[in-house]
Amino acid sequence: MRTRIWLAQNHALLPLLDEAREQFTEVIRVRSRISGTELAALYGPQAEMELGAMWRAHLQGHVRLSQPEADRLRTLRASRNKLAHRTALDNTALEALVHVLCS
Fold first, then answer.
1. What is the CA angle 63-64-67, rounded to 5?
2. How deeply is 97 buried, as exposed, middle or buried, from its count of CB atoms within 10 A (0-12, 13-18, 19+)?
3. What is the mean pLDDT of residues 34-49?
4. How confident is the model at residue 85 (pLDDT cuts 50, 70, 90)?
5. How many CB atoms lie within 10 A of CB 17?
6. 99 has pLDDT over 90
7. Counting Cβ atoms within 10 Å, is residue 90 exposed (0-12), middle (13-18) or buried (19+)?
8. How confident is the model over 49-71, as a mean pLDDT?
9. Can you give the pLDDT at residue 47?
10. From CA 35, how far away is CA 16, in angstroms rounded?
11. What is the rounded average pLDDT of the residues 30-36?
C-alpha cells in the first residue's frame, strides 16, 4: 500500500515540483549575492540548479532569501527529497506542499 501511495504522489507531484523549481530559479537569480558565474561554478547552472543546491546556496549566504521564500524552498526541497527516496509524503508534509504550490 505504501508503495502505491508513493507511486501516485510521485506521478502527480514530481511534475509540479519540477515546475516550482524552475520558477524558483528566478528568485535565486534575483536574490544572489554573488555573480551568476560564481553561482553556477559553486552550485550548477541556474536553469538546471536543483532544489538542494538552491538550499545550500541560501545556507552558505550566497543567496539571501526572505523568510517566506526560505520556507517555500525548504518545503519544496524536503518534499522532492522524500519522493526521490521512495518515501510517500505524510498528511502534514502533503498539506505544506499543497499550500506552497498553490500560493
1. 130
2. buried
3. 92
4. very high
5. 20
6. yes
7. exposed
8. 97
9. 81
10. 28
11. 95
Dihedral sign, Cα of residue 58, residue 28, residue 82, residue 103:
positive
Q: Within 13 Å, how many C-alpha atoms sit on residue 34's CB side?
A: 14
pLDDT score at 103: 87
Burial (CB < 10 A; 0-12, 13-18, 19+), residue 69, is: middle
* 10, three cell numbers: 510521485
Q: Give the C-alpha separation, 69 to 11, whole Å.
A: 25
What span, in angstroms and rounded, lies between the C-alpha atoms of 45 and 21? 13
Cα end-to-end distance, the chain, whole Å: 30
Q: How far is CA 94 from CA 27, 45, 79, 80, in A?
A: 23, 29, 8, 11
Residues 81, 49 contacting (CB under 8 angstroms): no
Residue-by-residue DSSP string for 14-50: HHHHHHHHHHHHHHHHHHBSS-HHHHHHHH--GGG--
Query: Is the pLDDT higher at 47 or at 92?
Result: 92
